[in-house]
Design a protein that fits this description.
This protein is an alpha/beta fold. The chain has 2 domains: 4-30 and 252-294, ATP synthase, gamma subunit, helix hairpin domain (Helix Hairpins, Orthogonal Bundle); 31-195 and 211-251, Pyruvate Kinase, Chain: A, domain 1, CATH 3.40.1380.10. The protein has 8 helices and 5 strands, in the order ααβαβαβαββααα.
Length: 295
């Protein structure tokens, strides 16, 4: 049995660990609520963009736009979103498992230090890496999206896809792959936007009266050229917010589990300490009694 001094040292260490994990749990919970609020704040923007694209869908020739043109896929372009920090359970490893399963040629633009370290460690081709700040701003994510769109238009990659941990709820974050480019059709884009806005997806529904009354200057094709890059920037930004909410949720759950385990271990150590102390007192009493008997 360990000495009471060693057990006291372990109890102190576990108490410190429990205090730290409890503080990290509270911080992660606060950040998770802010990330969820930021993700929901984009719904009105998504709804309005869906209405505008719905009005454009019947007025332009989709096949003429480079984002909608089909091409042979030789090299995939992937935006990988992970966290900068650890202590968030299996969140990053689950996302990176999808990358491990990719056997076709691919080039990566990574948001988050964990992802860039993995890409470098596994000798995959890294085009660029970007930090995953807690305050995810549209300006930061726009740089990533525009970089990959340029690679697509220049022919460096033949697709643009996003891999990120999709936020379902506090306990569930699902690693997900979503293709961005080439776009299949404007109707599918509208369906994605309506889904993001929390509306029922109706990809082939007739335009509303308000959409039919929209006027586009200088012409519908020019407006479409301006809207589609905005759509791509917004989708990557939305996924980055989603990944940030997933990160804080996973970290909160991991820290809560660590705190609960520390509490349980603290109870076991306290019991062990009391037993050791009781055994020591009993031994001292026996020694005193034996000394008196010998005298």
């Amino acid at each position: 049995m360990a000495s009471t001094r060693d057990i006291r040292r372990r109890i102190k260490s576990v108490k410190n660990t429990r205090q730290i994990t409890k503080a990290m749990e509270l911080v992660a919970a606060s950040k998770m609520k802010k990330a969820q609020a930021a993700a929901l704040a984009g719904r009105p923007y998504a709804e309005l963009m869906a209405q505008m694209l719905g009005a454009l869908a019947t007025r332009v020739e989709e096949s003429l736009h480079p984002f909608l043109a089909k091409r042979e896929v030789r090299t995939r372009g992937i935006i990988l979103i992970t966290s900068d920090k650890g202590l968030c359970g299996p969140l990053n490893s689950n996302v990176l498992k999808i990358v491990t399963d990719i056997k076709t040629p691919a080039k990566y633009a990574v948001i988050g230090r964990k992802g860039s370290q993995f890409i470098a460690r596994t000798s995959r081709e890294l085009l660029a890496d970007f930090p995953a700040n807690d305050r995810t701003s549209f300006a930061d994510i726009k740089v990533v999206a525009e970089f990959m769109v340029k690679q697509f238009l220049d022919g460096v990659v033949d697709t643009v896809e996003v891999i990120w941990p999709r936020f379902r709820n506090t306990l569930v974050q699902v690693p997900t792959v979503m293709p961005l480019l080439p776009l299949t059709s404007l109707h599918d884009v509208i369906a994605d936007l309506r889904s993001d806005a929390g509306l029922a997806a109706a990809p082939h529904a007739a335009p509303k009266a308000a959409e039919n009354q929209m006027l586009f200057e200088p012409d519908a094709a020019s407006v479409l050229d301006a809207l589609l890059p905005l759509y791509l920037n917004r989708e990557v930004y939305q996924h980055a917010l989603d990944a940030k909410a997933s990160e804080h949720s996973a970290r909160m759950v991991a820290m809560k589990t660590a705190k609960d385990n520390a509490t349980k271990l603290l109870g076991e150590l306290t019991l062990e300490y009391n037993k050791a102390r009781q055994a020591g007192i009993t031994q001292e009493i026996l020694e005193i009694a034996a000394a008196q008997y010998a005298a």
